[in-house]
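note to self — DONT lose this again. spent like an hour looking for the file last time. sequence + predicted structure for the chain T wanted, 729 res
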Amino acid sequence: MDLTTTRTRTTTLTGTTVRRRARGLKAAFAALCLGAATLTPALPVTGAAGDHTALPAVANPALLDALNATETMTLRRNGFVVTAPSSLRSDNGAVQPHYMPPSQSRADNHEVYWQFNDLYQDNYFDGVPTFMTSDALLHTWHVVYDQTLIVLERHALAPRLARLSDGLVATSAIQYKAATMPSLAEAVRLNLGYLAVAGRLLGAPAAIPALIAPRVNRELALIAAHQGFATSPLLGYPVAYSAFVPRGHYAGDPVLSRYFQAMTWYNLLAFHLNGADGTLRTRQAILLVRALVGNASLDRLWAQVFDPITTWVGPSDDLTVRDYGAAMARVYGANASLSALADDAKLARFRALANRLADPRIVGVLATSSAGAAAMGKGFRLFGQRFVPDAAAMQALIWDKVGTPAHKRVWPSGLDIAATFGSQPANTLVTGPTPYNGTGYAHYARQLASIQQTYRTLPGNLYGGWLNTLRAVWGPVPPAAPAFMKTSAWGAKSLATGLASWAELRHDTILYVKPPEGLGSGGPVVPAPAYVEPLPLAYTRLLALVGQLKATLIAEDVLDTLPQPVEQYPAYAPPGYHGEHGYRGALDDFAAQLALAERVSERELLGQTVSAADLNGERTMFGELSLVDNFLRDNAAGRPLLLVDKQVSAIADVFTEPISGQALEEGVGDVLPIYALVTINGRQWLARGGVYSYYEFRQPIANRLTDDAWRQLARRPDLPAWTAGYMAY
């Protein structure tokens, strides 16, 4: 397949786009969705391996020939099977995903795919019944979330941050000239160094002030080396300089890489309230805040960077400009002179007042206890790292909350997150007699129950909405769901689906989330039927998220002004509900596909006939999703991207363990085929879809992985052992 021309078939397959959202759940459907399902085998396990006669009769028996004996046995046992990576697949070896014709897809030579839509396109042209999975729709939501964030960062946040930094440099230079007291002069001098580092990371051409240049140059050298922890020359405490490696969607893009490093500087380096140098650092913070709140233009620029991130990700876990500004007004008054900031007595009052404000909830400093970390880490960050519930869950399930001094739980796991937000299989793995046993550590079960209760309700921002959608993926399946969805194997598959989507969430927000640290072809097409994984609650929540994202872009007054440089591809701006184009059209088109999935899955659960128009919409949904995906990715990049640049695979480090010098990596690999026995309008079919492959492993912090490095690994780590229940090797 020519990777530069893969859009030829896809962009012509718009199909029947559904324009009206299904309105509510019928009373009968709501009743069907109540209660939890019992996990049992989907089919009687009879017959020899590879014996197709032991399977229920399907309308397309030829597709069974694509499965080897082990895969057939797994299909018979569970009602579905995911074909696991073989020696031919990039998940397990040295070659890239291959694209062989169906006649060659035998035994263990199934394809793996870089994108979901490629698999569904093959289904369309090869006449294979489609199984549209929640994985594919969750991945498209990730693309929508990530790519709109990229465009916002490139064209709004990065330019605003650069102007803000320049303005703070100019204001601080004025402060330095006006500072007659030595304590003020030293604080402003250090602030000029702090701002000079950010300016150089942003690519500012201005010379570094000579009065602070040696320290600035040492900071820049540490950032360039990015070799783990080292003491900051400007702020005097250990900093994880490996965090400055641009990762996620920032790697490889000059504009976004500069923004990443400058924002990392602003949200990682804190002016601590307490400690031996708390007086100096707090005075620095007060001077920076004074420079902002005393200048309406700079104050507005700061808010125009800070507030959109709050909507996308969450509130700051650190004290902010607004917190310090309010405290300053109480201690110093509204129009205090610069010289008033030299008053040590007032500074002591300010520190006492600030110490009564909320403590950070996530440990972001090297410490030996949670209480010590809260005191040590409390202070001001110009753009604080963001609090998110999953990071808090990780923090609550490691030492010194879980374990004993002799047996500390040092490492969290993605399973902790799934168990926190409703996955019963994850809960069983981490609390039962398994290799993932959390109860082997004192207090684990108690802490897990506490954190589950704490986050029964999630924040209303986009990040919290994504977690809430995963709660629907991990929650009980509707009792009317097909038999294969009531198996323990499907529970494990749903666990992997949610964790892979969570890895994408952390990948997209890697710059902003406060990560916890441990203590210590051609021809006519023969239409084939289609089936949607019946998870209507997940699709309803995704639909709400798309509406919330659209409303956010409208509120920021950017939805209709975001650049669309790839204008030569007008088909990448599909019409939406109201014939809209551009970003409005892309969001509306994705919403239409989610409404279709929601409506069809409701009818499937009710045992009702799915209309011919909706069946056609399901078959060609991949075309619409491809249009949305390509439009967002290409315009965010400012150029048409190759298929190799649009892979599903992605990686994010989510936790740092400073003693071992390692980070916990959460990864998504290639798309794996899933075969499932489904009933479509009264007939049973063997349908094929795509699912995530999910990875969790440890990596040295001096070598935190970028997406490119992850994709180019000669051999990826093993898939989690608990995935064996639904995969055939």
